[in-house]
Request: fold
Amino acid sequence: MRFGAAFWIQMTDWPALREACLAAEAAGFDALWIDDHLVSDEGDWRTGKLEGWSVLAALASVTTSPTLGLLVGANTFRNPGLTAKLATTLDHLSNGRAILGIGGGWFEREHDAFGLDLGASVGERLDRLDEAVGLIRRLLDGERVTHAGRFYAMTDAVCEPRPIQARLPIMIGGAGPTKTLRTTARYADLWNGYGLPDRIAEVSAVLRERCVEEARPFEAIERTVVLDVVVRDSASEARSGYEEIASLHRLAGRIGSDGRHRDLSAGGSPAVVAELVRDYAALGVGQVIWIFRSPFDLETMRRLGEVRAQLS
Reply:
């Protein structure tokens, strides 16, 4: 099992975020993920928010080992050609550690704030995502692209220099059974979702069906899951730590992509956290990603090694 650390970058500044990411690398996390919103999607939308691609570029210069990516980028923010160039540049800055995370986009308030087109419907937005990811894959793979589609047009577009990685991985986030998972089956190297193991098992079964329909091996797509985790010596200490963060970021009542209220996924001793991780491992999940919000939980980061030891 690989472990990722996801940083939600509201209510923080660069020095605090940099030190937290360095602490995560020192603790042995395999991946660092940054969220992609233009205003805060938790609590008061006017809360300060950094920009994701810029943060990744900065992390490329101060870290050495973890992979780097957005969890996940909003397709509605950027033209797919620009997205391909951003990912390629990050791959060079990080010496081949970039992952291109992307999803359909969803937060209406930030689109209104900056005059961005969210699309007429969820379905239209996901159709736009499918077209965009197909173009991005072609550009990253070295094709010279001329395209006149429903949403995008390109004329003799090329992404040079090529990424350092022979195949720069694309991660798609979302669990829509008809469109998002079909796009995942067509193009993705990784899929990201949120939910308890029973929910991930349900979505995985649908993804497997889409892979069959697209003649793509299900095993070619690494599945990843986002979790809210607090490691402490007792469940009560973990709950207290989570509730402090939940109160600060106004998480009460938030609904996850699985339709359930967001809450602490696993809290308590390393053995308790490892038990949940085993459940995901039994489903073939390749990476569990722990969410960190400001002020960043350095104790949970430092105790990753104890959780790994429980799994060995």
Summary: The longest strand covers residues 2-8. The radius of gyration is 19 Å.
